[in-house]
């Protein structure tokens, strides 16, 4: 998932506008953020650093690579203060992340299975070659 999409998810989770998000980062106008959200720009290091400083509970691994949960800790808001829609959105997001993680693990598993099959196949060839070579040797007697 592109970083622009992750930023949009963050903005949605914070329940603010892209302009308000830009202002919280110290930007007077939201042009840079809008360009990042629409894929016309990639965020610079300074922008990423501002985001992580502004939102200290934001998971840097999630922001940079899309790995893990969006926030390192749960919001301090009591669960009862969250609306049902908020809870459902959080659950949908967690399920989405889990599905992505499962897909990645399945791809990794498939690759490892292929590598294992290649190693086993090569081992059989080497073993067969060794047996054939040994049968060519004269026997003592």
Automatic annotation (TrEMBL):
Gene3D superfamilies: lambda repressor-like DNA-binding domains (1.10.260.40)
Superkingdom: Bacteria
InterPro entries, A to Z: Lambda_DNA-bd_dom_sf
Coiled-coil ranges from the UniProt annotation: 95-122
Keywords: Coiled coil
Protein name: Helix-turn-helix transcriptional regulator
Organism name: Larkinella insperata
